[in-house]
Amino acid sequence: MSAHPTGDLPVVVIGAGPVGLAAAAHLVQRGLTPLVLEAGPQAAAAVRGWAHVRLFSTWAELTDPAAEKLLAPAGWTKPDAATYPTGADWAEQYLQPLADVLGDTVRYDATVTGVSRVGRDRIVDANRENQPFTVDYTTADGREQRALARAVIDASGTWTLPSPAGGNGLPALGERAAADRISYRVPDLTDPVVRTRYAGKRTAVIGSGASAFTALAALAELAKEADGTHALWVLRRGISGSTFGGGTADQLPARGALGLAAKAAVDNGHADAVTGFRTSAIESDSKGSLVLVGDDGTRLDAVDEVIVLTGLRPDLSFLSEIRLGLDERLQAPPALAEEIDPNQHSCGSVSPHGHRELAHPEADFYLVGMKSYGRAPTFLAMTGYEQARSVAAAVAGDIEAADRVELTLPETGVCGGSGLFDDPNAQASGGCCAPTPQLVQLGIGSAAAIEIDNNSKPSGGCCG
Predict the structure, then answer these.
(1) How far apart are CA 390 and CA 358, in angstroms?
(2) What pLDDT, in 10s, does the model give residues 28-51?
(3) Could you give the 3-state DSSP secondary structure of residue 37?
(4) Model-level pTM?
(5) DSSP secondary-structure letter at 447?
(6) Dist CA 149 CA 359 (whole Å)
(7) Three-state SS for 376?
(8) Using an 8 Å Cβ cutoff, are 12 and 106 in contact?
(9) Could you tell me which of 148, 64, 161 has the C-alpha nearest to residue 371?
(10) First to last CA, the chain
C-alpha cells in the first residue's frame, strides 16, 4: 500500500494558460486543491508570445464560467462580450487576474521535467493506481523540486514546439544553418526592430492556416508603406475555394475574415502563391539570399526571410514514464483523434467530448487544451473549457457531471495538415492538391483568380 494517501494531495495542473487556469478554477469550485506549475514568469506565457495577434473569437467565447465566479468577488468585470481581444488583452484582462485570484496555488518559473508515480516506472504494474504521481520541476534559480499529486492535468499546450519547414516533418536540409533568418511565429510589425527586418524584403511564408493568413495580411499592409516588400506564399496543396477558409460562411466572422485578408494580399499583388510545393532544403545563393528547394528539385526565387507556420506539436518528452495512449498520426488520445483527424473530418465536425475521450491507460492523468489535439489544427478555447469542466468533475468523482458534456463548435473552413490534404493525387478526384509546384498569381482579371463560393463544398480530402 502507498504511504501517501492520495486524497490529501493536490491535483497538479501543468501550464497557467487559458485551459490550465480554467481547470484550476473548476477544481477549486469542487473543493479540490490545484497546484499550477507555469514555466513562464507570469500567467499565459504562450499567449503573451503572440500578444500582438487579435483573436478570431470574441470575449463571449474566451472566458470560463467557473473562472468568472472566482473573479467576481475580486471586482473583475468581463470585457465587452462582442469585441475581439488581442493576445495581450486576453492575458492582461482575464488570464493574469484569474491567476492572481488563485494565489499561491500558481507557481511561476516552474518548468516540469518529468511525471511518474512514486516508486513506479512505466513498466511496473503492482499497485500502480494507488501510488501518487510525482511531478519534477526546476525553478528559475536551477533548483530541482518534486511535487506529489493525486492526479495530473497537462495543459502545457504546443507553443514551444513549432513544426519545421520540411515537407517530411523534419527540418529541411539547411534549415538549422539559416536559423537567423527563419521565424516560426507571426511577426509583430508594430515592433520597430521586427518591422525593419521585413520592410523592403522578400519573405516566404510557409503554411496554410490562420497563422499564415495573419502573417500574409500583415506583410501586405507593410508593403503599402515599404516599397519592395513582397511575400511568397508556399503551400503544400493546391488552391481551391476552401484554401482561404470559410469566408463569410464561417460562424466565427473574424476567422473567416482572416482568409479573405490573405486572399486580398495575393489579389492585390503583395504576394504570390506557390502550390504543391514540399520544402526539402533551404540553401544560400551567391548573394546570401535563401532559396527553397522542393522534393522534386524545384528551386523557388530567392527570398530574404522565411516565416514557417506549419503547425505546432505536443512536447511529450517529460511524460516518458507515463502510460499514454496516443493516436499514431496526430499524437492525440485515440478516441478524440477519430473526431479531429483532418484526414477524415471537416474542421467543424468535432463531437462533444470530455474525460472519457481524454483518458489514458495511466489512470487520473489527462491531456487537455491544445495539447489534447496533438498535431491537429483549429482548437478553440471553448473546447478547452468544456474539457476542463469534465475532467475536474471526473477527478472529483462526479462521473455523472463529467459525462454530461455539451459542446457546439462553429463551422470552419480554416484548416490544414497532412494526409489527404496534401495527397498529390487528390486533385484528380476533385480534391484541392496540386500534383506539381505551380506559381499562382491571383487578382482581378486574372485567369487564375479564385472566387470563394460559400455554397460549394469541395470534394476529396479538403476541408470546407
Answers:
(1) 10
(2) 999 999 999 999 999 999 999 999
(3) strand
(4) 0.85
(5) T
(6) 17
(7) coil
(8) no
(9) 161
(10) 54
